[in-house]
Amino acid sequence: MTLWTPTDYNPDDFANRRHIGPSPAEMEQMLAAVGADSLDALIDQTVPKAIRQADSLDWPALSEAALLARMEQVAKKNRVMTSLIGQGYYGTVTPPAIQRNILENPAWYTAYTPYQPEIAQGRLEALLNFQTMVADLTGLPVANASLLDEATAAAEAMAMARRQSKSKADAFFVAHDLHPQTISVIETRAAPLGIRIVTGSIDDLQADQVFGAIFQYPGTYGHIRDLTPEIEALHDAKALAIVATDLLALCLLKEPGAMGADIAVGSAQRFGVPMGYGGPHAAFMSCRDELKRAMPGRIVGVSVDAAGNQAYRLSLQTREQHIRREKATSNVCTAQALLAVMASFYAVFHGPVGLRAIAQRVHLNAVAIADALRAAGAEVAPDAFFDTVTVKVGVGQQGIMAAARHRGINLRRVGRDRVGISVDETTDAGVIARLLDAFGIEEQAARADRPAIPEALLRDSDYLTHPVFHMNRAESEMMRYMRRLSDRDLALDRAMIPLGSCTMKLNAAAEMMPITWPEFGALHPFAPADQAAGYQEAITDLTQKLCRITGYDAFSMQPNSGAQGEYAGLLTIQAYHRANGDDQRDICLIPMSAHGTNPASAQMCGMKVVVVKSAPNGDIDVQDFADKAAKAGDRLAAVMITYPSTHGVFEDTVREVCDITHEHGGQVYIDGANMNALVGLVKPGEIGGDVSHLNLHKTFAIPHGGGGPGMGPIGVKSHLAPFLPGDPRTGDGAVSAAPYGSASILLISWAYCLMMGGEGLTQATRVAILNANYIASRLAGAYPILFMGNRGRVAHECIIDTRPFADHGVTVDDIAKRLIDNGFHAPTMSWPVAGTLMVEPTESETKAEIDRFVSAMLSIRDEITDVAEERIAVEHSPLRHAPHTVEDLVKDWDRPYSREQGCFPAGSFRVDKYWPPVGRVDNAYGDRNLICTCPPLDSYAEAAE
């Protein structure tokens, strides 16, 4: 007899052993609870056979070790050079404490958007620090919590200026020394809105002919000037002034607010965020106080909790969570929270004195380079600058750039006879010596001792005066501050976040590791293509895999959010219609259940939105759809649908809807928000879709980062491929600042596809559907489950109806906040149906975690019963007092339920329980008393009293 027993267990099977939560044995138990004989049978009952794809996804899977080895090979194909290209992207030093404790910390990168403020106090404070930093440096009192990139922020500012300007002009002035990619995106955004763009020298501005103007400060070629006269002229003409600016430059330069600017925009990339071949980076926007309620995106504000203690929340957040559909002025529904947090900690880490020192070092290095070049007889411009100059080299341009590349330096080509040089934080004596050598200058550059900034343009105001920017910057103190803030949050590293439509799945460590490698992080997005061969290989292979998954023929990786993907997809459809001479096609049919960003995106494209009714079971009302498509006739441009539906159901009529659209000459846009229910089972490009965006931060494992980054690339059928977004440096139709959007995080999705393999991706979809149906089955007796589909099954998410409990005074908010006591983030609240909870467990949650969630929901149901049967009044119940804090636990207890019931309900951990740092936040108070920068320290004391 031998003790040796062969095993077929494969510990390197990433898909089934690491990513997918339930074990095979647990799946059997779950299938029994669901009432399905097998996983295959459940899928057959859920997904209509008529739309199932015929082929399987069959590429092999890599182990984690093999994946990292492959990534290392690809990384070596990138050539990391010193890029002095500038144009909005700069070398920067990420402090190791920030890289390890923020960027590489799942407590920060796996958190969700802070819609439940009680469990997001840490990142809300960090984002408030970001807003304070931006407001201080730009000299404008209100800033938002970040936008996608500088170019799209500038386009948002243009649209905001049009709404707020009292001028009747229809033109917008764009100074010619804006970064080229910003001009390109502004032109894209302006066209469908009927805004006429006027580009020219600042001296050519005719203020009375425009509703607004945007200036770059410092200009893309380095020029700095006081914009006060131009801004005054705009104000005299009732127009608004926007300044695209640089936060590091503003540590030395007169701030836009001091010049009278109405809005400031820019990028916080050089505050410790790697270039990453284009992103992700946190853009910013700040404005005058009178304009704050028109500002797009998220604004973190200060409020109070139920006990009167100070608490943070997203102010005015209903603008975003329930976007005003076809009346929307922006489709912004995400931010760059993780990158904004990094930038804010960079400012905390260095403080105002450190930032000024870095800015002075950058500036004096640029002066030293300019002096050395002039001493050698070169023509250098401008005379006044911060970090950028251009050098006239005549016909020797190509030779100079080649000589610099030979010495490991990239320069910027400017026109036919100049090269641009932009100095950054990483520029040192060695870089300067190599640069000058490329110009044939052997002498060492003399250290500059005078600025090239006129006295009138030197900043004379203080900034970053709040104590948070003056804390002891010893690393021990910094690490403790970052830990304190992360401990105030609830992220995926603590518990399941069962948000319907948001797919909070595992973000595996192996997928995340390569993005911090310098071979990927240190590349400039406008570096020569031969230096980015590794990126090209990764992006090409990811594109091919996404085409196989979706059934589309081509992809654009440029959109850097889901809403940007929607917008880009609709612009692609519009361009196709125009090319066919169908300029009249301007109607977009959108079901009532659609994401709020769908009609918002259509409105931004200049389309007229026609809403389609829903049938009683939640499906699209096909008759109403057919009637409205027929009425639109040759004006029908597109239909936007989500599949599976926003109600979490595979509708049998999807092909019929697509056919009706095509009969009338329209194009079908399928929202990819629910792609996690399709991968390996259904290809949207084969069921009638012409274009889809994919939320890579949902289905394809890019983490949500506390509210960003995201990526929303679009896939199209071949007839639409020629109309995809163009290169933002030169092309028509660019929607983002960089050619591949937030390119560095595409590596995460590529790694996910490689480690899962084709079979693993398909199995993930199947288990996501199993997990959702398991929850629906377990809770069906306690809660009404809406929209179970024609076969009594849900897709990858289910909607729990809490509206009947309103008769007893119990609200959906009560249930959501009580879940915090149980140790969970609430599901998606009141969408797509008001008064409901939409639950999506994803495939990554184990049966044990799902059972813990079910136990929590059942215990809450018991508490609702206590209220309904009048054993306790709702206002005195644990539901209304939720969430419970440690302060509740230790203070005098006069409630009719026990401390244990209040603080340790079913599902909560006893030893390492998560305690929310604040009680229920008063949203109305925060909106009435809008405070969007760090409050003074005495306010903390007042709140405590």
Note the topology.
Elements: H1 14-19, H2 24-34, H3 39-46, H4 64-75, E1 82-83, H5 96-103, H6 106-109, H7 121-138, E2 142-143, H8 150-164, E3 171-175, H9 180-190, E4 196-200, E5 212-217, H10 228-236, E6 240-246, E7 263-267, E8 283-287, E9 299-304, E10 310-315, H11 318-321, H12 337-375, E11 379-381, E12 388-392, H13 397-406, E13 409-410, E14 412-414, E15 418-422, H14 429-438, H15 475-487, H16 509-512, H17 518-521, H18 533-550, E16 554-556, H19 562-579, E17 587-591, H20 597-604, E18 608-612, H21 622-632, E19 636-642, H22 654-663, E20 667-672, E21 691-694, E22 714-716, H23 746-779, E23 785-786, E24 798-801, H24 812-821, E25 828-829, E26 836-839, H25 847-868, H26 878-881, H27 886-890, H28 899-903, H29 923-928, H30 937-944
Parallel strand pairs: 1-13, 3-4, 3-5, 5-6, 6-7, 17-18, 17-19, 19-20, 20-21
Antiparallel strand pairs: 2-8, 7-8, 9-10, 11-12, 12-15, 14-15, 16-22, 21-22, 23-24, 24-26, 25-26
Keywords: Oxidoreductase, Pyridoxal phosphate
EC number: 1.4.4.2
Family: Belongs to the GcvP family.
Describe the model.
Keywords: Oxidoreductase, Pyridoxal phosphate. It catalyses: N(6)-[(R)-lipoyl]-L-lysyl-[glycine-cleavage complex H protein] + glycine + H(+) = N(6)-[(R)-S(8)-aminomethyldihydrolipoyl]-L-lysyl-[glycine-cleavage complex H protein] + CO2. Residues 17-439, 453-726 form the Glycine cleavage system P-protein N-terminal domain. One of its GO terms (cellular component) is cytosol. GO terms for molecular function: glycine binding; glycine dehydrogenase (decarboxylating) activity; pyridoxal phosphate binding. It is a single chain. By secondary structure, the protein is an alpha/beta fold. The protein folds into three domains: 84-495 and 908-944, Type I PLP-dependent aspartate aminotransferase-like (Major domain) (Aspartate Aminotransferase, domain 2, 3-Layer(aba) Sandwich); 545-700 and 711-736, Aspartate Aminotransferase, domain 2 (3-Layer(aba) Sandwich); 757-907, Aspartate Aminotransferase, domain 1. It has 30 helices and 26 strands. The strands form six sheets. Strands 2-8-7-6-5-3-4 form a seven-stranded mixed sheet, sandwiched between helices. It has a seven-stranded mixed sheet with strand order 16-22-21-20-19-17-18, sandwiched between helices. Strands 11-12-15-14 form a four-stranded antiparallel sheet, with helices on one face. β25 (828-829) and β26 (836-839) form a beta hairpin. The protein is globular.
